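Request: Give me one sample?
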Amino acid sequence: MAFRQKHLLGIEPLHPDEITALLDVADRYVDLSRQPNKHSDALKGLTQINMFFENSTRTQSSFELAGKRLGADVMNMAMQASSIKKGETLIDTALTLNAMHPDLLVVRHPHSGAVDLLAQKVNCAVLNAGDGRHEHPTQALLDALTIRRAKGRLHRLNIAICGDIAHSRVARSNLMLLGKMENRVRLVGPPTLVPQQFREFGCEIYDDMAEGLKDVDVVMMLRLQKERMDGGFIPSEREYFYRYGLDADKLAHAKPDAIVMHPGPMNRGVEIDGTIADDINRSVIQEQVEMGVAVRMAAMDLLARNLRTDREANKGVMV
């Protein structure tokens, strides 16, 4: 099955075969990125605009690097100094951008649904780099690629996602993707951060790390999203680490070959012990960063192919 999407707004619309197709292309870009000459001309002649309304290090830099390696003209918009700050609406910003004829628009926004709204107003491919608490599709895809390469498959694994589920768009996207690929997913954390409504995703919920990590293949830790918390979700960071931070004793309940993941940025000594994060035999956190560039290259490549096909089909058609 081909990758049929015009935008990458979330994991929810993707068919399992489309996920596999994107990961297969990403695998090839991992190989390319390890070569002395890391460049391709897949996006040659196309313009990529990165609009980050929230601060980002990993996601923005990897999208920029991905576009440049594919030969795109890449522009990063300084949204903190943009007309949005002067009162311009998001729709007016979209219309202004559309007049510049971009081909790929990468957007991170603090409000859920904002990226989807932009996609309705522009004539280019839009990629969601994270919108509010809603979704972060490329993070889930790079996590999937990391798991597939480490475990040799992406189905029928036991996977524990631990920590601040309530505020995490990464958790939501991963729940959807891992569910589509027939994995057994557990959510582990304090009841204040793991609402029972997440059972709707078909996962199991635990508030005890020893039980939640028992015999899992993958341990995915999440950052405490303190900037999205407006109340006392945890008694203290020290108490949180004691009960829910990943250390050697808690990891011992997982399978001996279980891998450890974290989307970053990490709060060492809060969500994860530094020794575990740096353990080259268990941690794949640095591999996640590498896979991020390859997955974003694959996503933009596939969307650009569909964009070119649509434009070719519409050439000469009166609007």
About this structure: The mean pLDDT is 92. Strands lie at 47-52, 73-77, 104-109, 125-131, 158-162, 184-188, 204-206, 218-221, 259-261. Residues 285-314 form the longest helix (30 residues). The radius of gyration is 20 Å.
